[in-house]
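INTERNAL AUDIT FORM
Audit reference: QA-55
Scope: verify that the stored structure record matches its stored sequence.
Auditor: D.O.
Record contents follow.
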Amino acid sequence: RGIDLLESFRLGKLKASEVFDVKLMARYFAVADLIDAPHATASHNIRFYYNPITSLLEPIAYDAELFINEHLTRPGMIGEYLFHRNEADHKKIDIISSEYYHLRLFSDPIFFAAYIKALEEISEGQMLEDFFEKHRDEIDYKLSVIHKSYPQHLFDESIFFDRKALIKKRLHEQ
């Protein structure tokens, strides 16, 4: 059933909201924006769990590859770049590409609204602050282990707060 759902989505027979748990999928993409991990949203890098209760697919984080050094040089959010193209450009996108997969997702108004809501929750709320507070001891411990072999390694959590501010700014631009 899960394979049929995904293939029907890919072929344009079903909308994103008919295939995916929209709230979880939107949050997955919003968190990927927050940590600047678009690689994790590529069609070949995302994994899914078929939920037999909801009969929907749920995203499983996989292969994130963060772009830490480029966190403010990238233009914005994953869902953004597709809407700066015209219809002729959309027709040139290969059906097996990640761009096609993203276009199909973000063309569903139900998914797009959930994505915007998830971005607003992330950029307005305390999720990031709460995460670092909750995991402070674990982060510090794991950094101490890393520093034994790589003392020069830096972990600057302000990068994530910069991304949060960027998301908030992009959402409120006219």
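Auditor finding: record pair retrieved intact. Residues 147 and 153 are 7 Å apart (CA to CA).
Action required: none
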